[in-house]
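Case study.
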Amino acid sequence: MRPAASTQSTPRRAPARPAGQTREALRVFLRNPAAVIGLVMLIAILAVTIFGPMVMSADPFEIAAAPMEPPGSEYALLGSDYLGRDVLTGIVYGGRATLTVGLVAAVLSVLIGVTVGALAGYYGGWVDEVLMRITEFFQVMPTLLLAMVLVTLFSPSLATISIAIGVASWTSNARLARAEFLRLRQREYVLAERVIGAGHGRIIWKVILPNAIAPLIVSATLVIGTAILFEAGLSFLGLGDPNIMSWGLIIGNNRPYILTAWWAVTLPGVAIFLTVLAVSLIGDGLNDAFNPKLRGRE
Amino acid sequence: MWVYLLRRLAYAVVLLLAVVSLNFLLIHISPGDPVETIAGSMGGLSEELRAQLRTQYGLDKPFLVQLGVYLVQVLHGNLGHSYYFNLPVSDLILQRVPATLLLVITSVVFAFLIGTLLGTLSARKPNGPLSQTITVIASVGYSAPVFWTGIVLIILFASILPIFPVSDMRSPGAEGWGLASILDVFNHLVLPAFTLAFVQLAQYSRLARASVMDALASDYIRTARAKGLSERRVLYKHALRNGILPVLTMLGMQFGNVLAGAILVETVFNWPGLGRLAFDSVLRRDYPTLLGILLFSSMLVIIMNQLTDLAYRLVDPRIKTS
Amino acid sequence: MPGFKRVCIAALACALAAAAPAGAADAPRRGGTLVMGSTESPRHLNGAVQSGTATALPSTQLFASPLRYDADWKPHPYLAESWEMSQDGKSLTLHLRKNAVFHDGKPVTSEDVAFSIMAIKKNHPFQTMFAPVEKVETPDQYTAVIRMSHAHPAILLALSPALCPILPKHVYGDGQDLKDHPRNSRDVVGSGPFKLKSFTPGQEIVLERFDKYFIPDEPYLDRIVIKINPDATTLMLGLERGDLQLIPLISEPTLLRRAQADKNLVMTDRGYEGIGALSWLAFNTARKPFDDVRVRQAIAHAIDKNFIVKALNAGFAKPSNGPIIDSSPLATPDVKKYPLDLEKAGQLLDEAGFKKNGDGVRMKITVDYMPGSDVQGKNVAEYLRSQLKKIGIDAQGRASADFPTWAKRIASHDFDMTTDIVFNWGDPVIGVHRTYLSSNIRDIIWTNTQSYSNPKVDELLDKAAQENDPARRKALYAEFERIVTTDAPIVYLTVIPYHTLASRKVGGLPVSIWGAMSPLDTTYLK
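After joint prediction, the assembly is written out as follows.
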């Protein structure tokens, strides 16, 4: 048997219905301590970012305290930045923008990537050739540079940044999807569907995709993390949207002051780090959960 | 065989030209042009000078003509002159390539070796405590923004523990490649390379872990075990060899991302590499330099892809590339 | 008898130090490498065809100029031993020293001076510097006579090191376009105290002592290394660690505070009177509602300069009230000022017809700002946002991704209000006129992008440009300042608090009006 060209294996029998597989995977996931920690962290972060602004009702751009107060001072629990704005407020409010960009960029990236990869892997032949050339074309261009050029071109705003990141980073999803579809289209159950005359659309959507979904979900969670880091990087370089508070923006704004107001750079960085960590722990957990064979080996 | 190689070569050239053309387009439609930058650097500009510069840079010609002129020039091996420095782009790139390559290769080698080792170790007992710890540590490196890691290191090594220099590749005024200079460069290399490696650690570790686990589960491993081979031999000789394939693919694919990380690390540490020059060139609208760097890095990525494909075929001759 | 020798050398050094314009009190020591930090990356090293502080730093070490200046705006001999201005002010005769040679050994003659001045006139972006110069005659090898079409008092300041580097005709007179000349970055030959060892674009410039410099026993330093790092914080770190010894042009308040607290560092704000760096807010008077002077004055009254000085600049900046920097001999303090007065601002806006609507808003405007200068740009814009809200103006900041984007917007007059930083460059003819002359309304940045047009101002500026008598000239500029501050096409905020930071080891710090943008031939390491 050929070793798998992808990173996960799947059951070699005809697949159980996806629902059964999912329940099993969920149980495994919840028994994995790292994954559960990640899940708890993410829920906590989401709670703070979604409900925090409602509770706080302050303006993160407002000058609340004296400039560059260290954490623990009277008006600024986590300190204030170079203008006197509260870092805590900035972090609570900034989460929305950062997470939104991360999510939108990831969705875009996965949508484009999976579409291209699935079509290429399923149809093969010249469709595969053409799509793979396009993929390679995008892959060859340095992602950050491309994103920078796009953002400079269209003026920095949340929308531009999300789109730029999505456009610059879909290629890995495409390759993954293609590999999965290539592998799965030769399966007996797919051939069986062909024999009974099922259309391509049905086969792609209802037969292959549910079985390919596992590694794609894992990949999607990773892309969210990458997109968040990307946004932070662009803001750090000064190309973020200056009118909307985001974690990367706080870091970018306060970069000249790291020696004196290190908290304004370090603490939002911690927020980014915890979020991406949570997401990637979940991703790892999902990865293990969808590989029942490997769990058996202790 | 030769026909195949020639075809790949021709294809690579076409791909490169396509990449360059797209970027040419993107940069030219960005607001502002190099004349504004030059005006900025000078504290003002006169009407006549501005007109002169525009003609000199061909900015008054229609876009397609500009693109055509540039492509022809590139095909002759001439990357043009930097608008900002008035020096040949190839000189500027060659000046900076060693620094970036040094940084990137050091960080990749380090991350690859340690990451693969950690990943393999954790694949033996996938849910054991060692494996969990390794996962978490690797995830820490991956989750922290690379520039943040760099900044934290700078704060640590600037104020608290001043062992390593926190910026540049050499001490001011140092030159040459004598022993003392090489040591000086490596001294400066430690922090930036570590920062860049830390980010990639997780990818290689996680990937190695997954592939090795995957390979361990398959039939031929069971066969090897049935044949009575020691566990260690099973692991390292058979599982790793096949597990390494996706890791190799990752190496090739990640190269582009590593270059992106290099831009940030070079900015934070003022490392005199291509990444920093590229970033500055975008901001200055120094088209020839930026396009030259894009061309160069795209070439590198294409070469990496080809090498990865080749390595793939060597490691497992059963795999056919499409 | 080493003791006796040392006494002699010390005495000689003292005599020399007394003769040198930027005199150091103690005996300068020979030798050593001075590492200077700079955040700007020069395009090349020839200040004759490129203006700006980035090029001036290295260019003033490589090239000498006819005159140099002290801290009191008085010119001193440099390449020119002496000079005379004719009665009608239309000819300036320079008598050059006879012992000056270029780095390649060839003598500096009046031919080189004539060539350089005409080359600068042709290629330098500041066209007004030598515009009235018709020709430079060279009656003999060491005499140059600059003939001008009318009296041009600015000519004396235009002969400063930063503005008039004397180029060797035998190198640059080969017919190639000077702006692109390959010798601008490689094998640069001048007659200044230091010669070029290496130039790595974007990274560092290494200069070496020129042994045949025409001032004997100078320069004291063996080498100068200019280290380029766009991040001022890192440069500061380097200074603290001893990797660097000198950083000019630092205006960042947090760094200044840190330097102030550091006992091992010396900090001075002297040396920046020449460039006269002003930070201001400019209106596009061609656009409604900024064509109405009452609106402009209202906004001026709403701005609390004290806050900008104390909070945004940590007290290091001085407020600025007019187009000419107040340390210039031609400035006047008697201008129309705009103290903080929110009520008056509201009144003026009411008069102009902008009443508050239901939400308390009179108008919505955008504020542009130059990227890359947070303290003078973005922070001011953000301050304006909250401050102008108080008088019912909704001011949104409009960010530009990078410098060319911002420059394009301002150049094409696509803005409401913008922060800006503009330098005086010594004589008002060079850096001030360009903002207010109606003939200079163009689509290039740092011209009259405000579309300001007042014929009286045009007349005053033209007269002042040709007025040789200092007292009469000052009076003309005083009237000009009064009119401009009343018309308020620009709200003056602060003088940018440039400081030079140095380690205590550096002696003979450059404190003339041009600061570090003058030859460091009297600087030494203790």
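Observations recorded in class. Chain C is about 30% helix and 20% strand. Residues 274 and 426 of chain C are 5 Å apart (CA to CA). We will return to this complex in the next lecture.
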